[in-house]
């Protein structure tokens, strides 16, 4: 699910991708809400808050929201640049996810050991950056079918897929592939359900374990990425042996 293949990706692979990355995004978002009262990947809401900060002449609030938006965009940009630079590396998406996991683990460890309310803004901006990386990675890998943090867009895609699926029963247009839209709808619903489930789990885990739970999310991403790299390398080695034989 984390490997960019020459053949077209199946919906099953995208659903597995959604289960892992959308759930992780939901957990991290909910933990940030529990810790700081703020959602680092809710860019629609954050943009909506900017005019309010301007109207109230809250310079700090405006700068914080603007920086958070820029951080999210920068995360997406750097993930895209990494994919382009490493397009010949089969495990490039695994490496990006591995780097994200390491960064999240480091941030969480600092919070566990040296938590201070004075650093809340910096931590949120860092999480916003990592959410940008996270969303960009899943979007690129799935060719736009899985946006792990962007629920608004996913709900829109689900509505479009549902409309196309229902229309296929009454339309004589042969271009409406009912089976295709059904699979697409299942993928979007899996993403939404995974994110919502992750949010519920994240709130419970943070309430029980605090920043140690966030540390666990970073470790989970590292394990998933490292496992995918190990499996890919082992499979490639086997194919090399077979060809030589």
Automatic annotation (TrEMBL):
The keyword Transmembrane helix applies. Pfam families: DUF1275. The chain crosses the membrane at residues 16-39, 59-79, 91-114, 151-170, 191-211, 217-236. It comes from the Bacteria. Keywords: Membrane, Transmembrane, Transmembrane helix. PANTHER family: SLR0142 PROTEIN, UPF0700 TRANSMEMBRANE PROTEIN YOAK. This is DUF1275 domain-containing protein.
């Amino acid at each position: 699910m984390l490997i960019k293949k020459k053949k077209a990706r199946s919906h099953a692979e995208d659903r597995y991708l959604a289960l892992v990355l959308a759930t992780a995004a939901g957990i991290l978002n909910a933990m940030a809400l529990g810790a700081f009262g703020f959602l680092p990947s809710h860019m629609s809401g954050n943009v909506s808050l900017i005019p309010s900060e301007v109207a109230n002449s809250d310079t700090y609030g405006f700068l914080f929201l603007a920086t958070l938006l820029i951080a999210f965009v920068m995360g997406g940009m750097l993930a895209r640049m990494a994919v382009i630079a490493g397009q010949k590396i089969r495990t490039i998406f695994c490496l990006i996810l591995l780097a994200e996991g390491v960064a999240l683990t480091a941030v969480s460890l600092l919070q566990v050991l040296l938590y201070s309310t004075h650093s809340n803004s910096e931590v949120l901006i860092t999480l916003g950056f990592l959410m940008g990386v996270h969303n960009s990675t899943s979007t690129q890998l799935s060719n736009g079918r899985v946006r792990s943090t962007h629920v608004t867009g996913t709900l829109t895609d689900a509505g479009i897929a549902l409309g196309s699926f229902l229309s296929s029963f009454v339309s004589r247009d042969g271009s409406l592939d009912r089976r295709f839209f059904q699979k697409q709808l299942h993928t979007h619903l899996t993403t939404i359900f995974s994110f919502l489930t992750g949010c519920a789990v994240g709130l419970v885990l943070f309430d029980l374990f605090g920043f140690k739970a966030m540390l666990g999310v970073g470790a989970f991403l590292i394990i998933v990425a490292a496992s995918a790299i190990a499996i890919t390398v082992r499979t490639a080695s086997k194919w090399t042996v077979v060809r030589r034989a």
